[in-house]
Fold this sequence. Notes:
12 helices
Amino acid sequence: MDRKKVIAGNWKMNMTAAEGAQLIADLKANCGGACGCCSAPEVMVFPPFTTIAAVQEAAKGTPLVVGAQNVHWATNGAFTGEISAKMLVEMGVNYVIIGHSERRQYFGETDETVNQRVKAALAAGMKVILCIGETLEEREKGVTEAVLEKQVRWDLADITKEQLENIILAYEPVWAIGTGKTATNEQAQEVHAFVRALIGKMYCPVCAGKIRILYGGSMKPANAEGLLAQPDIDGGLIGGAALKAADFIALVKAAC
C-alpha cells in the first residue's frame, strides 16, 4: 500500500522562539523545494511549547506542519507545568508526540498515562505520533517483540479503527537515541514489520497496510537512504539532525 512518507523533527528542549524562527527561515531559504514544499514527504517540526507560535508564524505559506511535544489527558485542572489538548488546538496545533522514550524514562510516563493522553488528543481532534521502543537491556535479553507488543496493546487500548487513522507510530530503539548508535537497516525493518503485523492482528490487514511507522533512532543523512528504502519504514522521527537546516533538508530529500 502506498503510504506518504513523513519526516518529523523533534526539537526537544532546544530552540528559543527567535532561534526556531531562524531555523525555519533557513529551511525555507535553502530547501530547494524539499522543506514541506513538495508533494512528498510530509514534513513536520515539533518545537518547545514557548517556541510554537514563532515557528507557526515563520512557517506561514508552506505545508510545514508545526506540532507539540506532549499533551496532558485532562482538559484543565491542577496539573502544574502541563498543557491540554484544548489549549493546543486553540493555538492551531493539530499534531502531538506522545510516549517519547524520554518522557517515559525521565518523567514517569507509563503505558496507562500514554493511553490517556492519546485518547485526550484524539478526542480534541488532534493527530498523534505515538512512540514505542525497547531499551538496550531489553534488546540484549531478546524480549524486544514482547516489550513492543505490550506497549502497542496498552497504548492503543480502546482506540477504534477510525481513530487509528489519526495515529502515526514511531519506533525508537531507546539504545540508539542520542548515542550515535543506529539499528541496522535489517534490524529496523524487522521490528517495523513486526509492529505492522501486530496492528493487522489487533485491527485488520487494511489498517496495517495504511498505518505509517517511523524510525526514531538517530536517523541522519549518512544512514537515511538505507533506512528509508525498507518496505515498512515510512519516514523518521528526527532528533539532533532536525536542529541543523542542512541535515534536516538532506533527510527530507532522502525521503522524496
